Amino acid sequence: MGLDEALLGAPAPAPHPGSGAGAPPVTVRFYSWSPDTLSLGYFQRLVDVPPAAAFLGIEAPGAGPDTPLPSAVVRRLTGGGAIHHQGELTFSITTSLEHPLYRGHVEGSYERVHAAIASALQEAGVVSRPRAELTPASEAEGTGMCFHHSSPVDLIWNERKGVGSAQRRKGGRVLHHGSIKLSATELETGVATVAGIASPGALAPLLRAAFERHFDARLEPSVPTAAELEHAKAREAFFGSDEFLRRR
Amino acid sequence: MRPDDRKYTKAHEWVLLDGDVALFGITDFAVEELCNGNEGDLVYCDLPEEGRTLEAGETFGEIESVKAVADLNAPIGGVVLETNEAIEEHLEILSTDPYKKGWMVKIKPNNKSLDGLMSAAEYEAFVAEKAH
To answer: How far away is chain B from the Cα of A56, in angstroms, using its nearest Cα?
Structure first.
């Protein structure tokens, strides 16, 4: 989270060799989590996410001794619902809001990013499509989980939501988080998964290639700058701190 | 045409001077970017505490739509006198009337200079450019 924050706050990123001609640079990160972690949406109330409330010992509807618990809880900078990061590929995209991917309304930016993801999923043998007006079978009330609540632009297959995503827009830049499930978790039952892919590391190259095709950019492997790493280290504990977790 | 009695920022906030106070809000363009015509897509708005001192350009609040959280930035500096509590319960106001009932924050400005901000005509040209 700290590194994503550093990338979001990057004031004037240097042109990157992976940038498309004339377009602002795009940074894409792929990662997975250890230990498994529940991330709350920026504005979510703890009492609206039973496993988070139970983890922190807070009384809440649906939270009790039998509530399945994650190994850790953090709060994201991005909006939306909670995600249990286990058995999934997580990605982040950071760029300028002037990038053609993100110009215009938020919904349109999701359509463009999701078109790229759908292309990658097809390579993995999954035929997905935007939810549109369908009510997915993965919808569930009262869990606070992102995968149990959908909007028309969300990608579904097997009539279930399969990609969780959320954005933060700040200072003319955007951070876009996404999660693609390879297997269901105890906290996110009934969601769509990419069953044919064995590991997050196997899905990432397909997604990278799809992003390059759809973003008209060449994504070059890179490492964070010293300043980005310094920021990430300084903020490492903040996203799981009581101060940030209990803000709502 | 947007109201020409106020000034606009490139981050799509507006500021209206009214005697010794100033009002901040966000433009219809900002709302449209977040909602794309679905006024129910706005889900939360966090506004500052009264008495807080804001610097020009400082983040004074945050707004969440179904799919994104966005910062709200102060067009000018000053001390927060009042926030529009009606917004927090009725976010649809920002869609239906962003320039009057949709004001967000009332401040006592540090100074009343609006230099560097855009007129309505300049803002029209700015968003027209962004739309292409």
So the answer is: 24
Return the DSSP state at A188. B
Q: Which of A121, A146, A180, A184 is catalytic?
A: A146
Cα–Cα dist A104/B132, whole Å: 9
User: What CATH number does the domain located at B7-126 have?
Assistant: 2.40.50.100
CB contact under 8 A, B36 and A171: no
Which of A140-149, B17-26, B28-37 shows the lowest per-residue confidence on average (mean pLDDT)? Answer: B28-37
Type and span of the H or E element at A28: strand A27-31
Q: What angle do CA A1, A12, A5 make, to 5 degrees?
A: 10
Question: Which chain B residues touch A80 with a CB distance below 8 Å?
Answer: 66-67
Q: Where are the domains of chain A?
A: 2-161+177-245
ipTM (interface pTM): 0.88
Task: Kindly report, residue by residue over A155-208, the tens digit of the pLDDT.
Answer: 999 999 999 999 999 989 999 999 999 998 899 999 999 988 889 999 999 999
Alpha carbon of residue A35 to chain centroid:
17
Pick the CATH number of A2-161+177-245 from 3.40.50.300, 3.40.50.1820, 3.30.930.10, 1.10.579.10: 3.30.930.10
The confidence score (pLDDT) of residue B132 equals 67
Q: Where are the domains of chain B?
A: 7-126
Answer whether B24's CB lies under 8 Å from B57's CB. no
Query: Given the DSSP bridges, would you call strands A83-85 and A160-161 parallel, antiparallel or unpaired?
Result: unpaired
Three-state SS for A216? coil
Residues from chain B contacting residue A110 (CB–CB below 8 Å): 67
A24 DSSP assignment: P
